Amino acid sequence: MSSIDPSPAPAAEATIPRRALSPCDQDAARTLWEEYAEAHPVAASANPGFLVDQFGDHAELADELLELVLTGRKTSTASLLAEYVWEGETPPGIGAHTVFCDGHGAPRAIVRTIGLALARFYDVDAEHAWAEGEGDRSLAHWRTEHRRFWERVCTAAGRSFSTDMEVLMERFDVVWAAP
User: Where is the ASCH domain (predicted)?
Assistant: First the structure.
């Protein structure tokens, strides 16, 4: 059963030229991971694998969000759980490490997942929105921008966004940053 969306859909976005994400440099990501593992062997051996990923769906957004992570303002992120299914991927678990690359594909930071929770779009709370560190950090901003983002993501995947979709809220710590 679908719930009624109490807010209007965001206004259509102006067509803004956006630079496509460059693929992550897997060799450089492995090198960054090896540097971390050498400096922190216990932490790395407790969770020996790592993911390689980027924030957003275009290079400018990836760079903007990664900068928020590197400055400590962004300590959480959110994904549609359905995206993992569409892409045949497994969501991260507690303790998982992810090497995040910038919009050019260069690895810049390693984060460790420290918390996970699921909620429907309108059940995501103000605390999570604040921890994501984006815009004015308000829940209203989070809803507007994430809805826009997920509408683009769903459209690109040949799907339709619904506020009934489950959102995977992930809290993380930066454990290593590229020099």
Answer: 53-176
Q: How far apart are the first and last CA of the chain?
A: 50
**Containing structural domain, residue 170:** 26-177
- Position 3 in a domain: no
- Rounded-to-integer distance, Cα 84 and Cα 3, Å: 23
Predicted model pTM: 0.88
76-135 pLDDT tens trace: 999 999 999 999 999 999 999 999 999 999 999 999 999 999 999 999 999 999 999 999
Q: Which residue has the tokens 């679908």?
A: 2
9: confidence class by pLDDT, cuts 50, 70, 90:
very low
Residue partners of 141: CB distance under 8 A and separation at least 6: 129, 134, 135
Structure tokens at 46: 């407790």
